[in-house]
Amino acid sequence: MTRLLLSVGTALLLTAGTVWAGPFEDAATAYGRGDYATALKTFQSLAAQGNAMAQFNLGILYEKGRGVPQDYAKAREWYEKSAAQGNAEAQYNLGVFYNRGYGVPQDFAEARQWYEQAAAQGNAIAQFNLGVIYDNGYGAPKDYAKAREWYEKAAAQGYATAQYNLGLQYANGRGVPQDYKTARQLWEQAAAQGYALAQYHLGVIYDNGHGVLKDYAKARQWYEKAAAKNDASAQSNLGVLYENGRGVPQDYKKAQQWYEQAAAQGNAIAQFNLGVIYDNGYGAPKDYAKAREWYEKAAAQGYATAQYNLGLQYANGRGVPQDYKTARQLWEQAAAQGLMAAMNNLGAMYENGLGASQDYVWAYMWYSLAVEHRIDTPQKFAADNRDRVARRMIPAQITEAQRLAQQCQAQNFKGC
């Protein structure tokens, strides 16, 4: 799961020292009711007298374009004045500016330095962003141990996204021994704050029995919480539960409804599963045209099994005119991702001259690759296919096919 740096500016500070309290609070109140001109005038007066919070808030006004034209350069100038007086929020916002390239060239190293200053004062978001920097190697070498340290600091302050990312480290054994129990505890803390990704991952834990007994009912409960916040992966997984009757009565209609919600957000797995529903008539009339539409959406995102199934439609003329060339192209895309069934089918195409010129060398190559990528019954099927083709080949052709297979693997199936 991608871990994102936060790019939002912090809220206006609504407290001030005794000397500044009246005017500052009046300006903050004006800002709150949308009277940015009044807020600007007062903050400018206070900022000119050296008030760090007013300087920071002027930065906010220029950053957001409230009461003034949006101007990142002026926002940065005011943040710098405030940061020079030790204002942690201004230091954090400067980190965001350099991290995102707002009015300055993007510079992760400079961002890290500002985050460090804010983090040293206990700013939880800055601590989290330092964790992200070390987790991903942004402007610094990847260092999972340092990432963990910063996530821990932010998580200890109850920062949900840090709790979530720290849970990912434990779940994936990244910089720490793999520990699903600790991951679950951290995700529970984040989930209690309504963090949808943590709720989704708790569903995954119970769905798969990672560090706990499998419990589809609990998985469903967590998926539902995340799905209610429009988490597409949770919606898709709820569809899987209903399609297969896991922890709920099997219900293809509900499965379809959940898949549709996830698919509308671009979830490739849900799009593929909708294709399967229409392709097979699960809870809906068979509709090869609709199946093709959903397979195409998932295939366009690089989902290998959708590319494979779409290839089957073209190879068999199901909902489309029969087109072996298009089938071959789709199976090549799926095979490039290591899908054994696509490799086997490519072997068959070259063996029989379907969508390509008959070529036993290439048939042998694809069958051999299929054998290498499965260890179950289909592997024996691919091996039988390879051996059948070999009986029609001379030794030099077999040698060439083996060379091509090794080359294809070395190139990670690119250009095969």
What are the SSEs and their pairings?
Blueprint: H1 21-32, H2 36-48, H3 52-64, H4 72-84, H5 88-100, H6 108-120, H7 124-136, H8 144-156, H9 160-172, H10 180-192, H11 196-208, H12 216-228, H13 232-244, H14 252-264, H15 268-280, H16 288-300, H17 304-316, H18 324-335, H19 340-352, H20 360-372, H21 377-390, H22 395-410
Helix pairs in contact: 1-2, 2-3, 3-4, 4-5, 5-6, 6-7, 7-8, 8-9, 9-10, 10-11, 11-12, 12-13, 13-14, 14-15, 15-16, 16-17, 17-18, 18-19, 19-20, 19-21, 20-21, 20-22
Describe the fold and architecture.
With 416 residues, this protein is mainly α. It is built from 22 helices and no strands. The chain is elongated, with a radius of gyration of 29 Å. The protein starts with 20 loop residues before the first helix and ends in a 6-residue tail after the last helix.
- Structural class, by secondary structure, is mainly alpha
What number is the mean pLDDT?
91
How many whole angstroms does the radius of gyration measure?
Answer: 29 Å
List SSEs in N-to-C order: HHHHHHHHHHHHHHHHHHHHHH
Distance between the termini: 30 Å
Question: What share of the residues does DSSP label as strand, in percent?
Answer: under 5%
Which regions contain 5 or more consecutive residues with pLDDT less than 50? 1-20
Helix content bin = 55-70%
Largest sheet: none
Gross morphology is elongated
Number of DSSP helical runs: 22
What's the count of strands? 0
